[in-house]
User: Which sequence fits this backbone?
């Protein structure tokens, strides 16, 4: 479970890319340059990257409406994502999906999803497919604490445990289901205990610590690949920004947010731990920061000058044969 | 007395039929309620059937090996061993087995009527109300099916002029086809104008000219008697039926009639009713050589105020209401009290009138009314010049043209007959008398 | 050419699944009780093969690919969608279409839209088999014909055969279609026999079938109502009215050309649908006639449907609820005058 230098730098690069990407979107949407509903992942980077570090292109992940982080962690092209969010023909979904439906099946990314909990059964299906076709693949669902109250969650976990599917269900418990605190709507403190109802393995990780996520995710994925069955992995994390861009955030205190942002930033913790252990140098990380910013700037510029989709695209891709 | 039936049960949703395996009782045996009487087999499973009432087994309808559908009558018990029981009647009274309710148990019946009676009204009554879209909303305007409109346009015809035979008088594609075919029977009367002229019969030529707002069907009761002895030419004026439009004034109608007479190889016996009689008078004055005799039915030379008012009302109602409504409005003006009092006759007559009205569009009526008003009074002094033998037939209870006698007196040598009690629409009110008088007249000329 | 023999509608469905699974290892069958006891080896139990017996025998033939699921429609259909998007070709059974309410999202927002939202990169070759319609006294929550809902969702296809021959061919086509297809099995037809050829054949999706030619009126039916239309046509023939019968077979995509062709021929259409009247297939067909066939209309388009009510239990009420040959004949008489 040890990570070598290049893997560490790669992990950092992905997390930094997510952070920069989300902050850039916040800027663009607030400036009116980008439309649609935008849900940003800033603060939760360690979860996506800590899990996806173990995955191959042939493993599938399904995500939520807050899906940019999972896309980037899974290796979806940033420029294609940016073009998609600008609604351009060069977007990874040809401009037809948008923020809540960004996907790239070639990278095993089954898509962000506008329906809470919908990715969980899709993941169960991907795991069933992997098992029956003997691909050796695993399927990972990312979803929030709110989704763990959906019927789809319970039905999927029951079925996955029953059939011992190679799946990992990652619940990103960020303490908030939209504008309602988690403890208002869930009677248990740790969502992980729900796995007990399905005789499923479970674990709890500090979602703000890349290494804890990496280790616990590793165990779960290993268990899945070894055909030992699924795991419910709860990552305690925090959403630095609002539920959506433009959220006035009246429902939580600034003090609470500040506490998390100041003391638990996963990027800062990663940097502190790896530099203190002498595994990487700060200068390397700064270089990565610069490269990420450059990549993003280029992505924005390319997206802004890319062509918009032709109106005829409205009725294409409805069916495999075209329109019907 | 009561009969208990033992039936093939329905054991499970997919069971359709069962096979008799073994009877445990025989006719004549006493059977207690709950006793095992029969073993059946279905879908590879055997089942034991118990009696649900006590009694004596009287008849078994199915033998081991027989296959019967669920609900079929298999055997019958009666309360007493020797009471009257008709096995054949019981079986015959069964409703078709497939329609029996899916009851697994034996059912108590009262005599042979029960099976039929137990199917309540659903079997005997009309089918449940058709669950279709609610009946169409139609207006008072003529309904024309889109296919009819399209065909009419294609053929260069005015769909408004087609009589509708569909429900509610809707004009269908077939109606347009019939109309087009009728137009092929047209007779040219002027440059670019052809009239619908029905030709029938053998003998000397005779021309029928209908009155205001109607068509040749107004002579329907008369024509069959005429065609036996004459070659009848019945013309629809311009704008009526399949004739070209637009409608024209009285002199033009007379000129059109002249053209028809020429086509008939004149001179012609001319018969005109009401406004048609006006045209006949014009014809006799303008082209006397074409007129062999003149029969004027309820004629006028000067329209009374009531006639003018009636014609005006006629136009207005036709523009806003259906032909059926129009016919009802006109009825008291055209028909006698006697006719109106006879319900069956009245309804029949009104249906015929409505059908005729349907063939005269509002635009035609307007022009005819103008023509009538314009002609009124213009020929009062000229009647003395008429040389053709003339008969005036008047109606005794005519509200619209009551001065027939004056017309007769003004024409040299004209005869005059009144049909007592008849309304203005003589051909509808007194067809028999009209027919007799007409034939008698024609025999003399 | 292969021989024909007589199979029931349900048996024809069974045969299609068998052939599909024999010819493609990626085809799996999942649903509630699709094996139904038969997956338990070593015990003296027989298999149900589905609540109506349609899938009996398949778990023995394909023990690893016929999966009984918990009673979790959302979970099982959603899982089937995910499996379809990632390499399998699943046949999922939704036991009764009345249960659509419990699994609408995986079909409506996932299966129907993944390909479109992902710019053409996803493919969901899923078939959902489901039982529809009245006629078994199964009452309000097990007798509906909700195919109008799925037919109206872009991205899904919806088909409904009327004969055992078409049941087999259309199901094979549906399974092999790369789009999500809802395959409807009218319960009143499941045990009705018909000629079914042996061997592998498909009936194309999107093509209606002219069951009988005529000149005076077009009876357009789907599923269970096609038989009723044919019976009505027989009765009408005795009255000198020549009725044409069109079996839609495919509700989405709809064979618009076939509908317009029969309208052009007769000028008079009666649509017969056992679903409820609002927002349904009958209305869709009627609108098509008026929209694109206006000049052919020689009579109003009549819709013979169930009433705007739930399905009642009592046998006589259910009979009054369903369309019938008598109601179709009455409708034809009404529009012809």
Assistant:
């Amino acid at each position: 479970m040890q990570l070598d230098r290049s893997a560490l730098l790669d992990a950092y690069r992905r997390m930094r890319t997510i952070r920069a990407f989300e902050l850039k979107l916040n800027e663009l949407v607030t400036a009116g340059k980008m439309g649609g509903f935008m849900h940003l992942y800033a603060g939760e980077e360690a979860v996506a990257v800590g899990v996806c570090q173990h995955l191959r292109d042939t493993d599938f992940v399904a995500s939520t409406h807050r899906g940019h982080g999972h896309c980037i962690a899974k290796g979806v092209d940033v420029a294609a994502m940016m073009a998609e969010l600008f609604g351009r023909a060069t977007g990874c979904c040809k401009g037809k999906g948008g923020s809540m439906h960004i996907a790239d099946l070639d990278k095993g990314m089954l898509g962000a999803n506008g329906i809470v909990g919908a990715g969980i059964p899709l993941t169960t299906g991907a795991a069933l497919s992997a098992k029956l076709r003997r691909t050796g693949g695993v399927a990972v669902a990312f979803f929030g604490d709110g989704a763990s109250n959906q019927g789809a969650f319970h039905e999927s976990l029951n079925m996955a445990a029953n059939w011992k599917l190679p799946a990992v269900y990652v619940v990103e418990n960020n303490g908030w289901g939209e504008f309602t605190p988690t403890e208002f709507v869930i009677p248990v403190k740790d969502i992980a205990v729900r796995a007990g109802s399905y005789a499923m393995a479970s674990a709890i990780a500090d979602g703000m610590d890349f290494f804890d996520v990496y280790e616990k995710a590793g165990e779960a994925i290993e268990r899945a690949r070894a055909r030992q069955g699924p795991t419910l992995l709860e990552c305690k994390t925090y959403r630095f920004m609002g539920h959506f861009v433009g959220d006035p955030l009246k429902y939580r205190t600034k003090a609470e947010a500040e506490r998390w942002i100041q003391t638990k930033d996963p990027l800062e913790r990663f940097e502190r731990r790896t530099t203190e252990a002498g595994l990487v140098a700060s200068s390397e990380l700064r270089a990565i920061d610069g490269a990420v910013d450059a990549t993003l700037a280029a992505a924005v510029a390319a997206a802004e000058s890319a062509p918009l989709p032709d109106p005829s695209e409205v009725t294409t891709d409805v069916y495999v044969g075209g329109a019907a | 007395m009561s009969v208990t039936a033992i039936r093939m049960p329905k054991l499970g949703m997919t069971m359709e039929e069962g096979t008799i395996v073994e009877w445990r009782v025989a006719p004549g045996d006493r059977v207690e309620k709950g006793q095992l009487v029969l073993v059946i087999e279905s879908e590879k499973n055997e089942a034991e059937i118990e009696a649900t009432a006590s009694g004596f087994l009287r008849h078994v309808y199915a033998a081991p090996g027989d296959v019967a559908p669920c609900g079929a009558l298999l055997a019958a018990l009666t309360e007493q061993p020797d009471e009257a029981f008709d096995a054949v009647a019981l079986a015959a009274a069964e409703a078709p087995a497939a329609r029996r309710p899916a009851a697994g148990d034996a059912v108590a019946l009262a005599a042979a009527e029960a099976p039929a009676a137990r199917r309540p009204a659903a079997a005997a009554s009309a089918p449940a109300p058709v669950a279709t879209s609610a009946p169409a909303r139609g207006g008072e305007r003529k309904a024309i099916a889109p296919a009819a409109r399209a065909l009419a346009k294609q053929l260069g015809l005015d769909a408004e002029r087609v009589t509708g035979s569909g429900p509610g008088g809707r004009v269908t594609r077939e109606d347009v086809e019939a109309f087009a075919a009728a137009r092929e029977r047209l007779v040219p009367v002027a440059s670019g104008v052809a009239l619908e002229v029905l030709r029938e019969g053998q003998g000397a030529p005779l021309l029928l000219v209908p009155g205001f707002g109607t068509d040749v069907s107004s002579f329907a009761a008369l024509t069959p008697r005429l065609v036996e002895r004459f070659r009848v030419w019945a013309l629809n004026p311009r704008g009526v039926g399949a004739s070209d439009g637009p409608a024209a004034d009285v002199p033009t109608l007379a000129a059109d009639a002249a053209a028809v007479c020429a086509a008939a190889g004149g001179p012609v016996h001319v018969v005109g009713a009401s406004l048609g009689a006006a045209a006949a008078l014009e014809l006799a004055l303008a082209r006397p050589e074409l007129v062999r005799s003149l029969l004027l039915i309820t004629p006028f030379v000067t329209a009374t105020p009531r006639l003018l008012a009636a014609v005006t009302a006629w136009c207005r109602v036709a523009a806003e209401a259906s032909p059926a409504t129009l016919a009802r409005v006109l009825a008291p003006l055209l028909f006698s009290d006697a006719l109106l009092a006879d319900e069956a006759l009245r309804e029949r007559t009104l249906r015929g009138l409505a059908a005729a009205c349907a063939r005269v569009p509002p635009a035609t009526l307007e022009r005819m009314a103008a023509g009538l008003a314009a002609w009124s009074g213009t020929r009062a002094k000229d009647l003395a010049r008429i040389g053709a033998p003339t008969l005036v037939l008047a109606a005794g209870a005519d509200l619209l043209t009551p001065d027939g006698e004056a017309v007769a007196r003004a024409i040299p040598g004209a005869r005059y007959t009144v049909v007592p009690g008849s309304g203005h629409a003589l051909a509808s009110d007194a067809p028999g008398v009209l027919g007799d008088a007409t034939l008698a007249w024609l025999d003399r000329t | 050419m292969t021989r024909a023999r007589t199979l029931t509608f349900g048996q024809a469905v069974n045969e299609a699944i068998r052939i599909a699974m024999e010819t493609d290892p990626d085809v799996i069958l999942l649903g509630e009780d699709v094996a139904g006891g038969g997956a338990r080896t070593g015990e003296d139990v027989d298999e149900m093969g589905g609540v109506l017996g349609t899938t009996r025998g398949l778990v023995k033939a394909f023990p690893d690919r016929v999966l009984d699921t918990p009673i979790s429609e959302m979970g099982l259909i959603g899982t089937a969608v995910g499996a379809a998007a990632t390499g399998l070709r699943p046949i999922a059974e939704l036991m009764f279409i009345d249960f659509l309410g419990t699994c609408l999202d995986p079909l409506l927002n996932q299966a129907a839209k993944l390909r479109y939202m992902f710019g053409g990169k996803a493919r969901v070759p899923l078939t959902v088999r489901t039982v529809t319609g009245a006629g078994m006294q199964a009452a309000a929550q097990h007798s509906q014909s909700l195919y109008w809902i799925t037919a109206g969702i872009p991205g899904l296809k919806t088909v409904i055969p009327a004969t055992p021959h078409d049941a087999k061919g259309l199901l094979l086509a549906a399974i092999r279609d790369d789009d999500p297809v809802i395959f409807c099995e009218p319960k009143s037809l499941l045990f009705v026999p018909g000629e079914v050829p042996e061997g592998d054949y498909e009936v194309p999706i999107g093509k209606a079938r002219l069951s009988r030619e005529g000149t005076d009126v077009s009876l357009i039916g789907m599923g269970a109502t096609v038989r009723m239309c044919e019976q009505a046509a027989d009765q009408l023939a005795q009255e000198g009215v020549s009725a044409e019968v069109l079996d839609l077979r495919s509700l989405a995509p709809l064979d618009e050309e076939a509908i317009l062709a029969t309208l052009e021929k007769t000028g008079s259409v009666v649509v017969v649908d056992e679903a409820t009247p609002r927002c349904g297939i009958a209305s869709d067909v009627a609108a098509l006639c008026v929209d694109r066939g206006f000049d052919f209309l020689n009579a109003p388009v009549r819709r013979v449907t169930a009433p705007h009510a739930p399905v009642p239990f009592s046998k006589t009420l259910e009979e009054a609820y369903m369309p019938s040959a008598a109601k179709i004949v009455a409708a034809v008489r009404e529009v012809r005058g």
About this structure: Residues 305-320 of chain B form the longest helix (16 residues). Chain B touches chain C through 28 residues (CB under 8 Å). The radius of gyration of chain B is 37 Å.
